[in-house]
Amino acid sequence: MSELLFSSASSKDEVFQKVFEFLDSEGFSIVSQDRERPWGGFFVIDEKQIRKFHDSFFPDVPFTEEQYSQKLSPKFLLVAPGARLSWQYHFRRAEIWKLLFGEAGIVRSMTDEMGVEHDMVQNETVKLSQGERHRLVGKTNWGVVAEIWMHTEPSHPSDESDIVRLQDDYSRK
After folding, report:
1. pLDDT 10s digits, 62-91
2. What's the domain count of the chain?
3. Nearest-CA neighbor of 49 among 146, 119, 142, 164?
4. Domain named Mannose-6-phosphate isomerase type II C-terminal: which ranges (predicted)?
5. Could you identify which of 83, 115, 170, 171 might form a hypothetical disulfide with 38, taking C-beta atoms 3.0 to 4.6 angstroms apart as the criterion?
6. First to last CA, the chain
7. β-pair partners for 89
8. Does 160 fall in a domain?
9. Is residue 1 included in any domain, yes or no?
10. How far is CA 1 from CA 10, 85, 129, in A?
11. Minimal CA–CA distance to 94: which of 61, 124, 120?
12. Three-state SS string across 83-112, please?
């Protein structure tokens, strides 16, 4: 996997373009993207490519054949320098994250009380439990994080409405 280099001076458009080109060069089909998030944005990868996504970015996480057939919402999250996603948790999913490029921090806790922020380590898998409070934090440079949702009720998969925001820098609910 080639390295994507960004600086704190890289514009959002430059970062999104580089990540788009990387995903395209790796053969991933992007089904949607959101560049309008105040913290950065994301790319959603075609669910039909979940095995390729898993093998490329999460080979250390064992999956069953049944899991490969479930909706896992493969994504690339792009977090801007100094930006933070909301302090949140989910009722119907756990999540798996891996920092692939750049820098990012993570805050996590099993209670509503925010814990200490820790630097994420490139290529180290982070497993977030269902109900675990968490926040992705931008550091001095852009961060690019691969993400898979692990639905606790595969017949009723989680979606964006399954976000309980406890605190948000952008006044979202």
Report:
1. 999 988 988 899 999 999 999 999 999 999
2. 1
3. 146
4. 64-168
5. 170
6. 37
7. 164
8. yes
9. no
10. 21, 26, 28
11. 61
12. CECCEEECCCEEEEEEEEEEEEEEEEECCC
Q: Which residues contact 105 (CB under 8 A, 6 or more apart)?
A: 117, 118, 119, 120, 136, 137, 138, 139
Task: Reply yes or no on whether the pLDDT at 3 is more than 80.
Answer: no
The C-alpha atoms of residue 104 and residue 117 are separated, in whole angstroms, by 10
CA-nearest of 23, 21, 18, 16 to 37 is 16
- In angstroms, the CA 173 to CA 157 distance is 21
Residue 82 belongs to some domain of the structure: yes
Q: Are the C-beta atoms of residues 162 and 92 closer than 8 Å to each other?
A: yes
- Helix (H), strand (E) at residue 52: helix 50-57
Under 8 Å between Cβ of 94 and 69: no
DSSP class of residue 82 equals T
In a domain, 145, yes or no: yes
Q: Taking the alpha carbons of 137, 142, 143, 144 in that order, is the dihedral positive or negative?
A: positive
Structure tokens of 11?
A: 């514009």
Residue 128 has which token pair? 């977030």
Domain CATH number, residue 35: 2.60.120.10
| Nearest CA-CA partner of 105 in 130, 80, 88, 129 | 80
The residue range of the domain holding 26 is 12-167
Overall pTM surpassing 0.70 (yes/no): yes
